[in-house]
Amino acid sequence: MTTLLERFLRYAKLDTQADETSSSSPSTEKQLVLSRMLADECGAMGLKDVSCDEFGNVMATIPATVAHEAPVIVWLAHVDTSPEFSSDGVRPIVHDNYAGGDIVLPGDPQQVIRVEENPALRELIGGTIVTTDGTTLLGADDKSGIAVIMTAAARLVADSSIQRGPVRICFTCDEEIGRGTENLDLEKLGGVCGYTLDGEGRGTIDNETFSADQAVVTVTGVNTHPSKGKGVMVNAIKILSRFIDALPQDRLSPETTDERDGFVHPYVFEGGVAEATARIILRDFDTPKLAEYSALLEEIAAPLRAAYPQARIEIAITEQYRNMGDGLETEPRAVAKAVEAMRAAGVEPQLSVIRGGTDGSLLTAAGLPTPNLSTGQHNPHSPREWTSVEEMETAVEMLIKLAEAWGTERVE
Length: 412
Ligand SMILES: [Zn+2]
Prior knowledge:
Layout: H1 4-12, H2 30-44, E1 48-52, E2 58-62, E3 73-78, E4 93-95, E5 103-104, E6 112-113, E7 129-131, H3 140-158, E8 167-172, H4 186-189, E9 193-200, E10 204-209, E11 211-220, H5 236-245, E12 263-271, E13 275-284, H6 289-307, E14 312-321, H7 324-328, H8 333-344, E15 350-354, H9 359-365, E16 372-378, E17 386-388, H10 389-407
Parallel strand pairs: 3-8, 3-9, 9-16, 10-15
Antiparallel strand pairs: 1-2, 2-8, 4-7, 5-6, 7-17, 10-16, 11-13, 11-14, 12-13, 16-17
Bound molecules: zinc ion (ZN).
Zinc ion binds near residues 78, 141, 142 and 175.
């Protein structure tokens, strides 16, 4: 029987990095290699309705064993890895019987996984830790999630004595570049709720994300030759600089907030005398606050418009994603069953918020309420990425308990 660790290593060694500069879908051909491998493995283990589409979305069904009609749930993970660090030639190192202490990565001894920065390591002495050699990322984000789902599926189909409801499995591409759900057929997928297996550590249920809008501030000035600028030139760079300078300095920024506080964050500033543009992200857990942040930008623009009547200052707001918590209220069982399953797997769950978005926020907004669950991944997007076999094993147990917990429900 394939072990959880073997599965993880098999998936981690494949380079499946996404590419945000590519316009194809999936963004890189190499993601399809893993998608097809997973579809084949799903078929070989006896899952039903196995499919893999041209976009690399894999779907399959673990049939129910309960006699009544129970609701369908979905487990999701993503095959791609982050473009933020190399994933070319991943050489995973398995640290059996971890003795404690910092872990120096041999391929680049500058890279050290320090206990101080990774307190979870203290709980994992004697267990099996997997790291890279320090020259690539590991891709435990999200291959630990894939290995956990595949292992849970294999155990469920092999044991019909476990009383469970039906589970749909779904692997997607390009999550890391925000396009994970773009070509996903939710109708075909089905399900009353989903669970992304893409969370860090052990025992966490992410049930809230930011709500997010983007503001593009465009200042149109008047350019002339500098020698003939007097009374005519209107410099868009200077006006936009004053705009940015008027943003709150001691609050509402990533540098000054944490936990549940939101922010208004300029992250791109570009242009010239004739036109200058700033891209600003607006973030808060409390969705109506985003309208206040838009209003704040208009308040900043008003006196500048009065001071520079020859210039044009435009603010365009676009919606990006919404707090997953808003949509989870429509299916309260999604989080309740996850809590029940984690306790049944011997872990006291912690509800947690993500200061960002996930595929789960997009899926939730699209009508599939989808919280995010722990899979033992740590330090994502970094050469110091690592995972714990024991934490992954807990996630497998939890998924089996989750299928059982949903098996007690009935479709009304
Ligand atoms: Zn991920």
